[in-house]
Structure formats: C-alpha cells, structure tokens
Amino acid sequence: MEYDRRIDWQINNNVKIELVKRWISVQKLKITTTKGNVEIKGDLEFTGKASQDLEESAVMNMLKTLDMALKGIPNLRDVKWDLDCFKKVGSRWQAIKSLKVDKSKEREKKVEEKKD
User: Fold this and answer.
1) DSSP result, the chain
2) Model-level pTM?
3) Residue 76's closest CA among 39, 24, 27?
4) Are 45 and 24 in contact (CB under 8 A)?
5) How many domains does the chain contain in total?
6) Bridge-partner residues for 94, per DSSP?
7) Any idea of the CA torsion for 88, 66, 58, 44, to the nearest 10 degrees?
8) pLDDT tens-digit profile of 88-112?
9) Domain containing residue 43
10) Would the N or C end of the chain have less CB density within 10 A of its end CB?
C-alpha cells in the first residue's frame, strides 16, 4: 500500500481520538506518523476524574488496552511508545518512575505559585 501525508494525517487524528476517549491529555504528548508508523512521546497526563485515580497497575492495564485499540486503526503499521513514566517491554508495560511522586511535586509547585 502507498502511504501519503493524507493517510498519515488520518492515522494521527484517529490516534488522538483514541487517547481522548481514555481521558489522556494529548497536549503533553508529541504524536507523529510516518508511513503508517506512529510514535508517541512525552508525559502521560490524564484529565477529569481520571487524573485523581492514578494507580500504576490501572494505568498499565489501560495502556495495554489502548495499544490494542490503536493497532486496530486502519492503515496503522506499528506504534512506538516513548513515555516519561512508562515503557513497553515486549507486550508488557513497566513503570519507570512513580506517578504519585510526580503528582505530589506538581501540587507543591501549584501551592508555591499561589503564595507568590
């Protein structure tokens, strides 16, 4: 199959739709598609109520489900993940650093900004 920019653009939009369906903020992610190969880089951040319930095991299960959903997108060949907090090893997900530590640091920054 011949890949062109239009197909890559459609794949990119479908990837963003799948991410938003799962309450993932696409603003902190860089999503690129080249010849049907998608690369997702950046910081995984959730919106809404999902941002409050961050258990690492639940996030890893959600990432596994998301990965399968993305591979069901028409014309998509492969998905490469380069996230700050998680990495994919084979078909399993591993936490690189704790989400709870990152969230507590963010809260501390917000408190300091309010003081200023």
Assistant:
1) ----HHHHHHHHHHHHHHHHHTTB-STTEEEEEETTEEEEEE---B-GGGGT---HHHHHHHHHHHHHHHHTSTT--EEEEEESSEEEETTEEEESS-HHHHHHHHHHHHHHHHH-
2) 0.78
3) 39
4) yes
5) 1
6) 87
7) 70
8) 998 888 888 776 555 555 556 556 6
9) 5-115
10) C
